[in-house]
What does this fold into?
Amino acid sequence: MKNFSNNSLLNISNWLEKELQKASIVQFIVENPDLNNSKRGYKTWVNLAELYFCKILTPEKISEEKILLSFIKLNKDSSFHLDNIENKEEKYGVESKFFNIDKNEEPTFLLAYKRALEAVKIETRQQVLNLGINKADEFDIIKKIIPNVIFNTIKFIGIDHSQSALKFAKKRFPTPNVEFIKSDINKIFELNLEKSDLIISIGTLQSPSINYKPFLMSLVQDQLTKNGAFILGFPNSRWVDNELIYGAKAPNYPYSEMSLLFNDVIFAKKYLQQKKFRVTITGREYIFLTATKIKN
It folds into this structure.
């Protein structure tokens, strides 16, 4: 059993990289993070495991000074990103791996989204439009953080092209103030919807089928009220073997490369600022751009 109680993180990571090429699970001994003078906390080891596409198992206490860590490799082939579903409309439907993901149970998503809702004063909004609603997780958080009496006065509209996901969402929200529409988001302008005073879209506008920049501009011009607000979520992560792995994946790169992500975020920021919005950028695994109208 390798003992790394007094080794540098560089030595540990070099060893770990080699060992993971040979084995699916790697064990090693480190200094107990609970010690008052320990130079590494558990967060160090959780981060290291994630960077090597592993998950960390429950540490075992060897002594007061040492613990045994076990890293097990994730199955990189187990990811909705690799799903090959013939019916493209059902790529994120109830039979997909994506459908079983619960972003709301990931703290870096949940807390950033909750702050965004607080920033736009969700309880004051009259109509909320969600593009790419899937099973309505974003509406679920709203329902849980504001009183029912207020929730039921807000009109909620969710648009998605997955019939099975929308059927599930309708069962979650059977109230008359929540409406789900099956449509290609590119055709939203054919639906003749009333303008909304909050538009939410999490991880949808970056779809290859959407011409992102002109589409975003048209949302501002044609779908948002004069004092409306935006919450846009940009994935800076991947789901691998049910684990949320930090860092956007770009084509032709073996590691996380975030140029395209930041290009989309900064474009939205600059455009919305030109339209007299106050814009903040928060989050981590999901980058949240929150925009509220600056009142004259």
User: Anything to note?
Assistant: The chain is about 30% helix and 25% strand.
